[in-house]
Structures are given as structure tokens and as C-alpha cells.
Design brief:
Layout lengths: L21 E5 L4 H5 L2 H10 L4 E7 L14 E5 L5 H9 L4 E4 L4 H7 L6 E3 L4 H10 L10 H7 L28 E5 L11 H13 L3 E4 L6 H10 L4 E2 L6 H8 L2 E7 L2 H8 L4 E5 L15 E5 L22 H4 L3 H11 L1
Parallel strand pairs: 1-2, 1-4, 2-3, 4-5, 6-7, 6-9, 7-8, 9-10, 10-11
Helix pairs in contact: 7-8, 7-12
Length: 339
């Protein structure tokens, strides 16, 4: 049975973290969402040096936090039996729980701890209003990292962006310079700039003297392969779900060109400028590049945007103009201005 809970505010209206010895943060998925928690983790630890921060995430996303010096212990949630994990959480004497996932599963886990709990406000109604009725109550909403911090009443983030910690033994697969990375993948069709556009843009970049590489995980392998074969002298480095290797290769690039995806946030976490295509989603949802040099390319003339806050399998209007109207020529001009 799921045990639900209500956030328990402190009487002062703020959280006195100096009285908290151990803190549990829950954000199980996904890649981008976990990366966006990094400013909060850093800010808490730098303001309260003695606090011990444990973080619970799905096992497949552990590389995002594996070498983070601000985390005391990284707990991983696996597919299947998690009884050992749950017993460990129950045994620990947490003084506070931050549920940044805010779903039934995370509520059940948080309910195992007898301590004050705060949960991330997802603003579901505002998303529904924006997607279905184009009533925008998110226009002035802060980005998600700031909203994560607002989960703690009265707490303020530092002024720095995302950061990803990579061990020294991880080395880039790239030799030379003047690289630009193409990351064509995303979980949903309506968040993906067309492959043929990536091909045309890639060849235009090569003609302008840049060296093109393709980056992505196992789910992006086929698309990256097709694009790489069609782009002159490009190098396909996709295929492994090794975030730290991808990020290491990104650090050798002048620019990362991507969709609204987890790899967009990974590029931001290693301080590489990004050019991002926003199709069915929009930046008021809070997932725009955070405190990093960027250019968002989107079609603001369409009244049907956004058609989803997470993406769709096909365009509901069957024209897909949110992406098709952003031509490779437009993208190239934007890249030149950014560089």
C-alpha cells in the first residue's frame, strides 16, 4: 500500500538546515531532471557544510551523481526487488526528505522515513492549461532548478549553473579541434528536429570548416548512424549509454546542437554552448538551458504550441511545422551568431 504524505512546513516559514544532520533527496528519473537538481545539492552543501546529503535515483542514471563530492551516499533504485534498499532507508535517521519526483512511488519511499518531508510542486494544472487551452500561467515561472530549491521554504540557490563531475581517467575520444557535436536523439518524435535537416546542417558545417561528430546513447544509435553516413567525414560516437564519456567528448567541442533532451542539460553541465530545437515543448515549462550560453530555435508563430509538456509520438495537426519551419539555413545562421 502506498503511504502518502503532506509537506510539513516549519513554524518559522523557513527550513533551518543547520539542525538537519542527514538529508534524503529523491529524484528517480530522468537524465535531464536529475541534472537539474545539481545546483540545489551544491548550494545546500556549501551553505551547510556539516549536512550529509544522500540521493536516491534510478540505477541507470547513477553516473550523473556518481562522482559528485557534495553527496554523502548515492542510493540506487533498481527494477525488481528493492527490499534491501528500503530497509537501508528505514534504518537511516534522516532529519528531512526532499521528494523532487513527487509521484506515487517516491511518496511511498518518502513515507518510510519519520521526518519532515517536502515535495516538488509540479504545477500540473498550469501545464494542462497551457497545453490544452493556451492559458499561460507559467510565463513568469522560474526554471526548474530554482523551483527545486523553492521546495525548501526560504532557501536560495547560488548563482552558478549545472556541473557534472568526471573522473580524471575518463579521456576524450576526439583528437584535434574545431568540433561541433550533433545530438539528434530524444524520447519523443515531436521533440526531434528531422534527420534530413541534421544531415544538411552537418554538411553545411563541414563546408564551413568544422568537424562534425554524432553523440547519443543506445536508443540513438540508428539515427546517428544514418546521419553520420550522410555527412562528409563525420564521426559517429553514439551507441553506449555512458554519460560521462559523452560529456567528456562534449568538452572538446565548440558547440553542441541538440533537441530538448537530457543531453542538452549534459552539455550545459560541462559548460559547452548549445543550440537547441524546441518543437512541441516550450521554455516556460522550465527546462530551457540553465545558466549556460545557448540559442533556442523555435517557431513562435504557431498557435498549436505547445501540444505537450513531454512530447508526442506524432504531430496532432499532421503538419509538424514546429520543427519543419526551422530550416538548416536558419540553424546555421544562429550557430554563426552564437559562435
Amino acid at each position: 500500500m502506498f503511504q502518502l504524505y503532506i509537506s510539513q512546513p516549519f513554524s518559522s516559514g523557513t527550513v533551518d538546515l543547520s539542525k538537519v544532520n542527514r538529508l534524503l533527496i529523491i529524484r528517480l528519473s530522468s537524465l535531464g531532471d536529475i541534472l537539474l537538481t545539481l545546483p540545489l545539492i551544491r548550494s545546500i552543501k556549501k551553505q551547510y557544510h556539516d549536512i550529509k546529503i544522500d540521493f536516491l535515483a534510478r540505477e541507470e542514471y547513477k553516473d550523473t551523481l556518481l562522482y559528485n563530492p557534495y553527496i554523502n551516499e548515492l542510493l540506487t533504485f533498481k527494477h525488481g526487488d528493492n527490499s534491501v534498499l528500503f530497509n537501508r532507508i528505514k534504518e537511516k535517521q534522516y532529519g528531512l526528505v526532499l521528494d523532487l519526483q513527487n509521484n506515487l512511488r517516491s511518496a511511498r519511499i518518502a513515507g518510510m522515513v519519520s521526518a519532515p518531508k517536502y515535495k516538488f510542486i509540479k504545477r500540473r494544472v498550469d501545464k494542462i492549461l497551457l497545453v490544452n487551452f493556451k492559458i499561460d500561467r507559467l510565463k513568469s515561472a522560474p526554471p526548474v532548478p530554482v523551483r527545486y530549491a523553492e521546495t525548501l521554504p526560504g532557501f536560495k540557490l547560488d548563482n552558478n549553473g549545472l556541473e557534472l563531475f568526471i573522473p580524471e581517467e575518463k579521456t576524450s575520444r576526439l583528437k584535434g579541434d574545431n568540433y561541433i557535436a550533433l545530438c539528434p536523439g530524444s524520447r519523443h518524435f515531436t521533440k526531434m528536429w528531422p534527420e534530413e535537416y541534421f544531415v544538411k546542417l552537418g554538411n553545411m558545417l563541414v563546408s564551413n570548416g568544422y568537424r562534425v561528430i554524432l553523440l547519443g546513447g543506445s536508443s540513438d544509435r540508428e539515427a546517428c548512424g544514418r546521419i553520420s553516413r550522410a555527412v562528409t567525414a563525420s564521426v559517429d560516437l553514439s551507441g553506449d549509454n555512458d554519460l560521462l564519456q559523452i560529456a567528456t567528448d562534449m568538452k572538446e567541442c565548440r558547440l553542441v546542437i541538440c533537441n530538448d533532451s537530457g543531453l542538452m542539460h549534459a552539455a550545459c553541465a560541462v559548460n559547452i554552448p548549445v543550440v537547441v530545437f524546441f518543437g512541441s515543448t516550450v521554455s516556460p515549462f522550465g527546462f530551457a538551458p540553465y545558466k549556460n550560453k545557448n540559442l533556442i530555435l523555435e517557431n513562435n508563430s504557431l498557435t498549436c504550441r505547445p501540444c505537450s509538456h513531454i512530447g508526442r509520438g506524432k504531430c496532432p495537426r499532421k503538419h509538424f511545422r514546429c520543427m519543419l519551419d526551422i530550416t538548416p539555413e536558419i540553424a546555421l545562421n544562429g550557430i554563426k551568431s552564437l559562435l
